[in-house]
Design goal:
Blueprint (H helix, E strand, L loop, with lengths): L2 H14 L6 E5 L5 E6 L3 E6 L2 E5 L7 E8 L6 H8 L8 E4 L5 E12 L2 E13 L3 E9 L4 H8 L2 E2 L1
Antiparallel strand pairs: 1-2, 2-10, 3-4, 4-5, 5-9, 6-7, 7-8, 8-9
């Protein structure tokens, strides 16, 4: 491979891997919750208490956050159950620095032409005592940006 072709390939890979800028705090409307997302990403209120946090055309990432009444999941095991993991024993489970519960696992994402699609399920939940926010996405693509956004979910 020529050096010119190698340089073009490196530039193309770097451009495709762009995450949309440095993460910055993005409030989820007046819900009392916040996420950190790349500077070029936007928060859109799809309807009351439903938010999309996304890059342009979902190219670099997209998550949905739903805010509801009540405390939400009270344990990591509860969150694993709600995520419907294929193998709960292999789920990544942690409490984030912001206090949210976080789960990542493999699951079924439907079928195409009779063949099951495997997806990565990402879920996190934060509570302020009276309300909770749930960040989630099921995806079969690169998940790094989505994981970072969901892990950053916290109360203001």
């Amino acid at each position: 491979m020529s050096n010119h072709l190698r340089i073009c390939l490196v530039i193309a890979i770097a451009a495709c891997g762009s995450s949309g800028g440095k993460p910055e705090p993005k409030p989820l409307g007046d819900s009392g919750f916040i996420v950190d997302a790349p500077s070029s990403w936007t928060v859109k209120a799809d309807m009351k208490d439903f938010y999309s946090v996304t890059s342009d055309h979902h190219r670099d990432g997209w998550v949905q956050v739903i805010v509801g009444d009540g405390a939400g999941a009270t344990s990591l095991d509860d969150l694993v159950k709600s995520a419907s993991c294929d193998d709960p024993s292999k789920a990544i489970k942690e409490t984030t620095p912001g206090g949210a519960l976080f789960v990542q696992c493999e699951g079924k994402g439907g079928e195409i032409d009779g063949k099951a699609i495997k997806v990565t399920r990402i879920e996190s939940e934060a509570s302020n005592g009276t309300r909770h926010a749930s960040c989630h996405i099921d995806t079969d693509r690169n998940i790094d940006a989505d994981v970072a956004v969901c892990k950053s979910l916290r109360k203001k």
